[in-house]
Design a protein that fits this description.
By secondary structure, this protein is an alpha/beta fold. About 55% of the residues lie in helices and about 10% in strands. Helix 1 packs across helix 9, helix 4 packs across helix 5 and helix 6 crosses helix 7. The longest helix has 27 residues. It binds adenosine-5'-diphosphate. It is an enzyme of class 2 (transferase).
């Protein structure tokens, strides 16, 4: 199946672009959502996390206390490595399963970590959503009700803008209005439908 990876920095518009592709009947797999699924109550990974960090890492309803876990791994790189080694293969396997089950013309893997992890190996084509840093900050602070400093820290921890752009097969400039974003997505959709068709034909040819 033809798989498009969709990425961009915080506040660049990954969710907005994903929604537009979903409206066009494309299957969008959200890597963030998959990352939450693999640590749901009942999942083996959650038991392993509780075993390592103690049951204090669980909320009273049995769900993972993400904030507490984020604090631990932020302060201890060794714990972060352990967690990544546990979760990344599980996330990858679940993404592959979802791609396998997809009946759409093509699928999109939307992920903030597409280029930072081996998730880019799962896609045929990379789309980067790009806005300048000031736009990232203003849109994210408004969305999350946070301050600019916090958003700046997240941006600093992500892949630098020029390196992200260098890895793009296609770029979406989301500096305009939402109305201006839609035709950009539609144009790419037409291109991806064609590429997906070509790939299917070469598979059978
Ligand atoms: P991401 O998923 O990459 O973090 P979002 O899609 O959530 O980014 O976009 C960040 C915020 O900016 C959201 O509140 C969204 O509604 C808003 N937004 C996205 N695109 C635009 C745009 N072209 N113009 C104005 N606001 C936008």
């Amino acid at each position: 199946m033809f798989v498009v990876g969709l990425t961009g920095g915080i506040g660049s518009g990954k969710s907005a672009v994903s929604q537009l592709f979903e409206q066009l009947a494309v299957d969008v797999i959200d890597a963030d959502q998959v990352a939450r699924e693999v640590v749901e109550p009942g999942e083996a990974a959650l038991a392993k996390i509780a075993q390592r960090f103690g049951s204090d890492i669980l909320l009273s309803d049995g769900n993972l206390d993400r904030k507490a876990l984020r604090k631990i791994v932020f302060e201890a790189p060794r714990q972060r490595d352990w967690l990544e080694q546990l979760l990344h293969p599980l996330i990858r396997d679940r993404i592959l399963l979802k791609l396998d089950n997809s009946k759409a013309e093509y699928a999109i893997l939307a992920s903030p970590l597409l280029l930072e992890t081996d998730q880019h190996l799962l896609v045929n084509h990379v789309v980067v959503i790009d806005v300048d840093e000031a736009t990232q900050i203003s849109r994210t602070t408004e969305r999350d009700n946070t301050d600019a400093e916090q958003v700046e820290a997240i941006i600093a921890a992500q892949i630098p803008r020029d390196q992200r752009i260098a890895k793009a097969d296609d770029l979406i400039d989301n500096s305009g209005t939402p109305d201006e974003l839609k035709p950009l997505v539609e144009k790419l959709h037409t291109k991806f439908l064609q590429k997906a068709r070509q790939e299917r034909e070469s598979d059978f040819g």
